[in-house]
Design brief:
- With about 180 residues, the protein is mainly alpha-helical.
- The chain has a domain at about 60-110.
- Helices cover about 70% and strands about 0% of the residues.
- The chain has helices at about 15-30, 40-50, 60-65, 75-85, 90-145, 150-175.
- Helix 3 packs across helix 4 and helix 5 packs antiparallel against helix 6 (about 150-175).
- Mean pLDDT is about 70; it is low at about 55-70.
């Protein structure tokens, strides 16, 4: 049986916005001990949903311009393409590929470098958010202990917030390869 890597839930920084909103809500809940609902409609909807849930190309152009007869006249273009094509024992058609290759290779290289850099930044952001979610989770647990039996609405609100925080912990940990932070 082949074990395939799981597709990440949070594929980019934008997809982490709900986690950031959850952190804002948890922070507000910890700061305001009378808070029993969110000021954010989306967050209230998410909190309500927990009711039934239990916890758990430039180089090619320049090369074309300067390789043959200087300029972009028909004679300049054809002589440049023929000159470039002769580098690979071909004609003008091969010259198109020769002149396009640097732009394509640089484009692919730049994309790969950017993608790797963005992936590293996304992982760092997920790690930072996970640490913050864990801190807020601990704060909500403390609030629940302090509130026990005093205010039923507050206990329900904090319990629902706790469920969302636990789900965020699970999702972020899963995205980070299952390693707990």
């Amino acid at each position: 049986m082949v074990n395939h890597p799981k597709e990440p839930l949070y594929k980019n920084a934008e997809s982490l916005k709900p986690v950031e909103k959850l952190l804002d809500e948890a922070n507000a809940a910890i700061s305001d001990t009378t808070r029993v609902f969110s000021d954010d409609g989306d967050m209230n909807a998410a909190l309500a949903a927990t009711s039934g849930i239990g916890a758990g190309g430039a180089i090619g152009f320049a090369a074309l311009y300067y390789a043959g007869v200087t300029g972009l006249s028909a004679a300049g273009i054809t002589s440049a393409l023929a000159a470039a094509g002769s580098l690979v024992a071909g004609g003008m058609a091969a010259g198109i590929a020769v002149l396009a290759a640097p732009a394509v290779l640089l484009g692919v290289g730049a994309y790969a470098w950017t993608a790797q850099r963005n992936k590293k930044r996304l992982i760092q952001k997920k790690e930072m958010l996970l640490q913050e979610v864990l801190r807020k989770h601990d704060g909500i647990i403390r609030q629940l202990k302090d509130t026990s039996g005093k205010n039923k609405e507050r206990i329900e609100y904090l319990t629902r917030l706790n469920i969302l925080l636990q789900a965020a912990i699970k999702d972020l940990t899963g995205d980070l390869g299952g390693c707990a932070a």
